[in-house]
Design a protein that fits this description.
NADH Oxidase; 7 helices; about 15% strand
Length: about 180
């Protein structure tokens, strides 16, 4: 048996070096459409995506990383042709109450699913990406003028990879270590 999606998952890797080449609007639209179609708890669709293509804004975003990560881990952000900032909110009273009762913020999972849809679609279209989770929410919010009723959850760099594709298999635990059947 074969699966095109599984093949994409096997091939994809986090890209941290990008070509100085813009991403075509048609491809960007398909990546965003993949997120729009993602499932969410109670079909709440709690996400909003800020697409940053302006090079100055992208450099500014890269500079808004926490101390110690700018030059070590996240300097590549400044060279990405596109950065997508994913936010949650506003969250309805019903979902806030449900999250409080079960002590889970479902919208984190919803946005994670939407972003993974983006990542896999991007790869299929020949684009690389990298999740960014370590950033200053306050500074990103201010830079992009994001309303206070939206929580900045994650960022995603996007563009054409300047890195050679890895031919070695991914280092992952075997199924026997991560799955139990009952």
């Amino acid at each position: 048996m074969s699966s095109k999606v599984l093949d994409i998952i096997k091939e994809r890797f986090s890209v941290r070096e990008y070509q100085d080449r813009p991403v075509e609007q048609e491809k960007l639209d398909l990546v965003l459409e993949a997120a729009r179609l993602a499932p969410s708890a109670s079909n709440s669709q709690p996400w909003h995506f800020y697409v940053v293509r302006d090079k100055e804004k992208i450099r500014a975003l890269a500079g808004e990383m926490p101390l110690g990560t700018r030059n070590i881990m996240n300097s590549f952000i400044a060279r990405a042709p596109v950065v997508i900032v994913a936010t949650a909110g506003p969250i309805s009273l019903l979902h806030r109450a449900a999250s409080f009762i079960v002590n889970r913020r479902w919208y984190y999972m919803d946005i994670g699913i939407a972003l993974e849809h983006m990542v896999l679609t991007a790869w299929e279209l020949g684009l690389g990406s990298c999740w960014i989770g370590w950033f200053s929410e306050k500074k990103v919010r201010k830079l992009l003028d994001i309303p206070k009723d939206q929580e900045v959850v994650a960022m995603l760099t996007l563009g054409y990879s300047a890195e050679a594709r890895l031919s070695a298999p991914k280092r992952r635990k075997p199924l026997s270590e991560i799955v139990n059947y009952f």
